Hints:
The structure holds 3 protein chains of 3 kinds. Chain B is mainly α. In chain B, 70% of the residues lie in helices and 1% in strands.
Amino acid sequence: MDIAEAVAPGDPILVIDNVTKEFPGVVANDSVSIDVNRASIHCLLGENGAGKTTLADILYGVFRPDSGQIRLEGRPLDMASPGDAIAAGIGMVHQHFELVPPMSVIENVVIGTPARQWLDLTEARRRLEEFFADYDVEIDPDAEVGRLSVGEQQWVEIFKTLYFGVEILILDEPTAVLTPQGVTELFAILRRMRDDGLTIILITHKLKEVMDLSDRVTVLRRGRVVDTVATDDVDQLDLARMMVGRDVLLQVDKQRSEPGAPVLEADAIHVESDTGRGALKGLSLNVGAGEIVGVAGVSGNGQNALFDSVVGVRHPHSGTIRITGQDVTTAAPHKIARLGVACVPADRIAQGLMMDFSIKENLVLGNHRSSQFSRAGILNQSQIDAFAAESIESFEIKTPSADQVTRTLSGGNLQKIIMARELYGRPALILAHQPTRGLDIAASEYVRQRLVQERDRGAGVLLMSEDLDEIFQLADRIAVIFDGRIVAMIEPDATSLEEIGMHMAGAGAGAP
Amino acid sequence: MDDFFTYSVILGIFVATVKIATPLLIAALGELVAESSGILNLSLEGTMALGAFSGFLVASESGSLWLGLVGAAIGGALLGLLMAVMTATVKVNQVVAGLALNILGLGGAFFWYRSVYDAGGTIDLPSVERFRTAAVPLLSDIPAVGEILFEQHWLTYFALVMVPVTFVFLNRTKYGLELRSIGHNPEACDMRGVGIVSRQYFAVIFGGAMAGLGGAFLSLSEAGQFFPDIIAGRGWIALAIVIFGNWRASWILAGSLLFGFLEATQLALQASNVNLPYQLLLALPFVLTIVALVLNRSRSQVPLALTIPYHRGER
Amino acid sequence: MSERVDDTGGDERTDPADRNPLAMLFQGDGWRLERRLDTRPVHEMYATLAALVLTALIISLLVILVGVSPLDAFTSLYEGALGSREAGLETLVQATPLILTGLAAAVAFRSGVWNIGGEGQFFAGAIGTWWVYELLPGLPAPLLIIAMFVGAAVAGALWASAASVLLVRYGTNEILTTVMLNFVVLYILSWLLSGPWQSPKTPYFQTERMDEKTFLPRFIDDSRLHWGLLVALAAAVAVHLLTRRTGLGFELRAIGVNKRAAAYKGISVGRTVITVMAISGALAGIAGAGELLGLHHRLQLDIAEGLGFTGIIIALVARLHPAGVVVVAIAFGGLINGATNMQVGTGIPFALVQVIEGVALVFVLLAAVACRYRLKRTVRHG
């Protein structure tokens, strides 16, 4: 492209030209070409694993593309690090915040600025206060960032990025931590920023956000661009079809449930949290045998504490938890597991698996002391091998051998290992926290079908998910969690996304 | 027992306290900077030994104690460089790398010493004319305080000056702020375009140079000689002091003085033939450090990413 | 369909070429350094061999600098270590405590517990041995020896537990507490030897010589090699069986890989940490008893001489495998033994041993990182 060529507003400011990025065994971005127009909001839409974040990371200099080129205002960019991207006028707010918790807001803002060596915070403070006043945000510039709420931290992140004077702002799933109302506020401000001339690239997997906000949208699927279209020319269904690659008919086949005796009874439990966020403040919840209770809520409202206290790795300081009628409020995790409690944790790698163990070892993890797999403390290798072979077959785990190191498997197969292990011994209660996060459609469907099968067998399932569609699909009853309490218990047929959204924001009818 | 509490004995204890604290303080301040960048350098003992020797070697070959100090700093910095390569670049486990370089530093110093000085077959320990104490004009005339604080070695003044210097550097300069940010959350810094590896190199090499100078205090100011057991655990004590001081320069000064005081007191006790098990005083600082670890746990200032290597793109 | 695409979604993303500045060296056209997901034992073996060759090269260079021919030096070293029957046996004498302190470190590190206190636990074991000796003087010899070993194991385990209890209860970093406790036990021993247990016959810090009935039997009259070696080898076998074949071993390894996941699967991390520290401390304590009863026969301050720290190096060079610990400990024993000969024969300072240990460990660590990568030919397009 000729550098001297005039660029009028609305012309492409950023051109992604045939970019390919490969990780071992995975092509994350395959010949991706996108034009992003000046002073517009451009959405990158795709499922988890479609390659959106990798593409954004390439735009921000985190990764270097294997081939292809990025051009900004017609000039090719060769970025070795985010520093180069910042220098070129590109800023990014990551999905998980890049903040230094023990430091103040203002200190976080000035990190990385090419300023004088002595810390002179007056200029930063002036601009910070101006910005906050401009957008009606009340945050103390001297507050320790670790003590701010998630929403406030996101403001710090956004301002931090704008402080450098960027022309292009990339936001990676910025609404994951916000209530529906918070999303509305954020979007209003993003529109204002666009009108002021900022180019915004927004990464999301939520169709509604694309329709609400964007001028143009690029749909990615398995690392490839499906199409780039003007938002006005499409509707949600078109986008969904492009995103998934076929007609979306995601109804899981399931009958109405006939709940039996309660398997989980949580009564007014209080659980403290280290950070002060995500504590439980008198949560009560029942799950009966043979039903799926879906817990909907914005992350950080106590889901982790609920999961942990039922599993037994954290104990409530008041209230009681009963499982199949037995008081397990302060019981150790292995005692709880023995009652037939299965847990599918949100973070497979950090909470669910030993990545350096073999697959077969992971398949018996937790059950390794059971009479089937060990005798008098000695492991029974032949039984373990037999169980591993059986699980690999029945759960369709793709691996050359049960002795393979778990690290080499993909996310879908990792989740299958966890499912195979947790469903061993026909559990009475299954805790599933974000069980399909990061999985592709096929693997997600597999996991969901399995959960329904277990329910039909008579297990009680507590499903916590940030994916409201998943909750609506699977749950027999929906419990909305907000600020450490269940604020609403609703039948899925008798409610709407909007009503759930209001409850999730703590603004539902009857909420305190 | 009565004659133990005389003015001169007690004054002597305080003078010795500051002197004994000097190498600990220098090494601990260097380690504070290194740890602030997220790298725990367990090789202080070996680094001090190497510094003590390289300082001694340069001083005795060149005849200049000041060049000796430069030699000590370079010796320590070289081991620090190796530590930085292993931890910041190759990202080997920091504990393991520290232990490896610790034994390398200790072994290297003794090996080098023996191969330089034993070859001639001398029996007497080789020695250099050591640093004399340098009284600060006027200030040293203040009763008691003058003798305790202002009739010390040059390196002692250096150590004391480095306390506020380190504080200001870490807390009032942009580079120091970035260094501490790396220690808490390297990814956040990387995503701001703040170079991590170069800053960790600086911090660890600086820490090594300081440990080298701490070692040089022992060989050039205190003993005027080098011998195999010259460091005698002071590297480990300096590590303990950083924890005891909860990663703050001022408290590290206090911790060094406390260690110095206990050591000085037990030396005085031994010299005065007071029949007390002096070993208990020697063990006390280590017990106190453990107690401090327990007590400080809720308001710990430990760098959050200490010992955790950073790989871009791995979350 | 491609199962693997979802890998790029979140947690599992890695970009080998950008992960490591070293990798930049290989970022030229056509080649790049790529992370291997699976490292095979063969790779580790080659890497370790390469590390040892490099160590030998560096040490040769050092020896040349001192003005000795590396051939002379290594010959002298070899003669001292394995050159004769006596030398070989003495190498095993040196290796005996190292096997045990090496196992002590390996067991703890395998569980991700950084017990740097092997030295202190060794002394605690020696103190425990003497304490049982004073307590039960009338016991017949075999029983007394067994009782003393048990006393040593318990004392080592208890001393290690001081660190693990603080770790589990308050989260205090065990690296630092175990190091601190090394000093504390040394001063306790120094106090014991300067007063309560001091032999009245000498001004030195040492106890009386022990009764001959407590001496560990020797294999041959003219060598110091004692039955402590059998204890050490038995311990190595026991540690291997424990970690590989038992439920407890499964849990020990599990907390070393992922403490959080272990906790979610009902493994009590605290209890396991305490167990593993007790095992580790007991092994180091047994080393103390072996040295006391097999070699020194009296308690004094210089019975460890860095055995605990050398054990740590051994465990790491052996990549924490029990059989490897035995091999490396014997090699290091030979090194210590041979270096004495080398010092006399060629004038190369004995401290070369520590240099070799340090350099070897550095290279083994680098090799371990290196074998996680491979050079891959890349096809550039576009």
